[in-house]
Structure formats: structure tokens, C-alpha cells
């Protein structure tokens, strides 16, 4: 239902990093400063990724990785590989994304770069979360969280904690998820992680709904919506109206329909299929309780078609990842027999 947090390198979501990285690239190239060029291309790749310019991102990450590998700059290489992995997963190429993630993990382990290891573990957990393998996702997120705590990386602790609580929620352990989210919320507020704060409030609303506490869920969903609106976080702003509508519906409040209609509009605009399913299903349930049989049926049909598409995508992704794992197992077997 909710946003999983991919761990990147800290660049901001705007065009400025691309401009700055391009300036650095223009300076590094003529000087023959390969280390600077590799890093500039890596940062430029993340800038393109944030702007949804995925082919440009892959091109920059690939050039950065090749140059960094040639120069022995393992930290930059690992960050470029991480960029390749999350871009490929975003494009639906889960097998290739898993291959890159595992390569990044090997680089981090070989170089002793524990930040790279924690980052990659978190993102592999996200991949399994997308595959709805919640037990595997939780194991990777917990490993990332433990390592992030050990090295004192506060932002990664926050990210991995949010993801671990999300896994726990999907496993039906709502009380445990709520407790972890509350602990993470206190830290996020103290450290000024505003996006995390409002994402956590939306996730806590879902936990509270799962526990049958719609009044408290409504309060958290409303705070999440206001904060996400102020930050321009459209992804979380899509979750919050769904949760608000579900809470209002559970409370028998007449404004639930308007909230869910808004949620449907936002979800369809964003085009993220799992959010569309949640929004259309909630609206269908509400229309059925209001006696609008035709409207409920329309929303139910949209939900069914979206679920069919989601299941097809899920099976394709699982097949890709399984094929990658089998290829890696065969490679490992050959190496061990040499």
C-alpha cells in the first residue's frame, strides 16, 4: 500500500544536481581527472533518475561504473551499480536489477564499505517487497537496519526502519509495525526528516486501521495529507486520502466518498498500480454501502482489471528474479568445482 524508501546517495530531487555534475564533468574531463569524472557521472545519473529520465540515468551510471572499476574507485563504483539497480527495477527489469544489487553487495563486502552494504541490503529488501515476499523483504530490511545502527547512519536507520515496519504490517503484525513506526517517528521529528515524518504518519494510519482504531487512524491520515501537500510529495499524498476515506467509512462519516474520489483521481494520475487498486477497491466498498450498485460495480471492475495486470506483472518479475538466481547459482557451482 505504501511507499518503500529506496536508499540512494543523498542528491536532491531537482535539476540542480545534473547541472552541477555536468559542470564537474566538464572540468574533470580535460584535466584527465578520472576519479572526478567517474563521480560526476554517477551523480549525474542520480539526477536523471530523480527526473524519471531513466535511459539517460543508465548511460551515466554505466560509464561511471566502467571508469571507476578501471581506476579502482570501489566506493564510486558501488554507488553507480546501486543506481543501475534501482533504475532497472523502476523500469520493471527485476532480474537485471537483482543482478546489479548482488554485484553492489559484493563490492561493498570486498571493500569493507559498510554504508554500501546497508544501502544495498535495504534496496534488495524493497525488491522482495515488490514481489510480495514479505518474509524475505523483512530479513533484508532488518539486516540493513542493524548495520545502519552499527555504523551510526541516521538517515539509513530511518529508511530501513520504515521499510521493516511496512513488511511487518503486510505480515499482519499491526501492533509491532505501529510500535516500530512510533519509535521511528520520534527520531525523524528530532532529526528534521520531514518526508519521513509524513510517510510514517500515513503508515501508522494503516496500522491503526488494521487494529480497528479508525478514529486515531483518521488523525494520522489527516496530518500525513497536510504535510505531504506542503512538501509536494505526490506519492504519499496519494496514500493519505485512501486511508482517510477508509477511516471515515469505518466511522460512518458522510465525507468519506469525497475523500475516496479524490484518492482515485490522484492514484490514476500517478499511475502506480497498487495505489490504484487500493483507491478503487475502497471506493467500490463505499458505494456499495451507499446503495449505488452501478457505481460500485464500475469501481469493482476497474479494481479487478488492475489486479489482473498487477498479478501478471508480479509473475513476470518473480520469473526474472528466479532466472537470475539460478544463473548465479550455476556460476557459483562452476567456480567451486574449478
Characterise this structure.
By secondary structure, the chain is mainly alpha-helical. 85% of the residues lie in helices and 0% in strands. It is built from 15 helices and no strands. The protein has helices spanning 16-31, 34-50, 54-71, 74-90, 94-111, 114-130, 134-151, 154-170, 174-191, 194-210, 214-231, 234-251, 256-270, 273-289, 293-337. α8 (154-170) runs parallel beside α10 (194-210). The longest helix is centred in the last third of the chain and has 45 residues, at 293-337. The model is unreliable at 9-14 and 332-338 (pLDDT under 50).
Quote the average pLDDT. Answer: 86
Shape field: globular
Strand residue percentage: under 5%
Q: Spans of 5+ residues with little confidence (pLDDT < 50)?
A: 9-14, 332-338
Oligomeric state of the chains in view: single chain
What's a concise summary of this model?
With 338 residues, this protein is mainly α.
Can you tag this structure with a few keywords?
15 helices; mainly alpha; disordered C terminus
